[in-house]
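A favour, since you know our structure tokens better than I do. Go ahead and set the record down below.
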Amino acid sequence: MKTWFITGCSTGFGRRLAAAVLARGDRAVVTARDTDQIRDLVADSGARALALELDVTRPDQVRAAVTAASDRFGGIDVLVNNAGIGYFAAVEESTDAEIRRMFEINVFGLSEMTRAVLPGMRERRSGTIVNFSSIGGLRSFPAVGYYNATKFAVEGLSEALWQEVEPLGIRVMLVEPGPFRTDWAGRSANETLPGHEIADYADTAGAARANFRANTGSEPGDPARAAQAIITAVEAQRPPHRLLLGGPAYDMALEKLDQLRTEFTAWEDLSRSADFPTTG
């Protein structure tokens, strides 16, 4: 029986994953900024579930939640950094307040949670940290440039982290979903303010933003199946460092790899020319 600590459980992946973890008989610390939205998740799970108020941008709440989880269950086996928001705007259209708020949640909140949980995992020489990224952490799209930037940051942080903690018995896994029916493009994402749209971006960022909104609720990804896939990966003897979720994410990731290889190869000679000449 593992103890899972999951952030952002009011909707989407967090909610589905919390329900799946509890259904299989594990323990779960189920968190959200508003605990009224998660009480139903823990209602029938008795002592195996703990619902906590948590805003990951508040270090005091992060520390208090980790302490409460450790006091209740003796430690945290799996941390799932799922809490996050989106933002739709061209880079030039974006506002500082929205950009900084998204970085506070998607990057700094994730970092705060990770650093709060690591001491206990290091002491036990075991644990798994699951960081939610996105296919947008591997490749960028118009209208979500700053969202992509937060997920690229999560990718870089996680890749360094697993090199640091795997020798200590701690595993780190990035989850990279494509389009899923999580309402990510609905209530959990803001967009450029009226009057801030720039006509020159109507056919790029504007069209992409409209497409994201129009497809809300009809995305191919099933969050319940994604939750089961995450559990399967966490339980594997050697979990992947990166878990793509959904066919579109898989296809887009391979397309990006092909694009990189093609461009790198085309410019190989110029790239190598920047080194000091070899002798002998």
About this structure: The chain has a mean pLDDT of 95. The longest strand covers residues 170-177.
